[in-house]
Design a protein that fits this description.
One of its GO terms (biological process) is phospholipase C-activating G protein-coupled receptor signaling pathway. This is Thyrotropin-releasing hormone receptor. GO terms for molecular function: thyrotropin-releasing hormone receptor activity. The longest helix is centred in the last third of the chain and has 48 residues. This protein is mainly alpha-helical. It is built from 12 helices and 4 strands, in the order ααααααββαββααααα. 68% of the residues lie in helices and 5% in strands. The chain has a single domain, classed as Rhodopsin 7-helix transmembrane proteins (Rhopdopsin 7-helix transmembrane proteins).
Amino acid sequence: MENFTSSNTTFGTWPDHSLPYKLISTLIVLTICALGIVGNVMVILVVLTTKHMRTPTNCYLVSLAAADLMVLVAAGLPSVADSLYGSWLFGRVGCLCITYFQYLGINASSCSITAFTVERYIAICHPIRAQSLCTYTRAKRIILGVWVTTSLYCVMWFYLADIEELVYEDATIVSCAYKVSRNLYLPIYFFDFGVFFVLPLTLSTVLYGLIARILFLNPLPKTKSKNGHDGVYSGNKTNGLKSSSQCSSTTAASRRQVTKMLAVVVILFAVLWMPYRTLVVVNSFLQEAYLDTWFLLFCRTCVYLNSAINPVIYNAMSQKFRAAFKRLCRCGPRVQAKQAAYSVALTYSVAKETSMIESTEHFSTEMEDLTEGPEDLTEEPN
């Protein structure tokens, strides 16, 4: 992960051979990594093995789970060995590969979060376009593009990292370090920091603000039908009126719940990465970097926790993920997944009302993919 420029080591650690530090750091990091690895593997499995869970948004969540899994394996587990032995154990090849996969996981997770944020914005704020843009096939292509691009971008770390020997208290300690000078590394780091942290969070803030305006400030308008009943759309077919009227109230509430869940993922990404990112930025301008081992442990723990907590969020805020996790663990009865209810687009155009009702079945799973994904629109918010 990002180096603290004074020590110039990839994990940003300074050896602490005290027994309390070894025990506490090992216990905390190993516990978070174990739970996170299990949780992210379960997310990937339930989406890939359950047909009704294969939706556009769930594709992005699988990409995020794979990236978080990579961070836990490439950053979390090696840090346990680093804490126990106080020296790098994996050699030069291990240093290059682990550094590469650390950055790949971090950058891919950031891009995946940005991707599902944009997808939710299109689905809610531009529902007509969502019929062609928010599809399962397009989501897979975007994810492939994200991983190919970030994989190529991170190749540079093979040329920037190497093992380094440090003399500390009359002992020689091997570390995985960046071999470039501080003046050369700082522009690279700040570019990475801006593109994969500041820019995604800024974009997410703007888009979720626009989504909130639609969901919370502009409720679906109601029109009077010929028989005097309230409905979102009016038309000649009684069944169409009844269907749109019944699903309109649950659609708005469920969309709010789905948006809250995805917003929580973004907020936790920002909050849990903030200590580490801030410390690296501050140390970049200090003559003598702040390298308190306990505070560094806190910063790294926040990073690992961010990669481990998303499956917990899905389980807490999505009944479908909860049921899928239970089926995967064989902890609950195997029941058929509930069919997703028809949903209607958030549009105020009276001229398109009839066509929207007739085409609801065609694009409900494309535009409202979370009806078959993180949240069923027929469910009441938790």
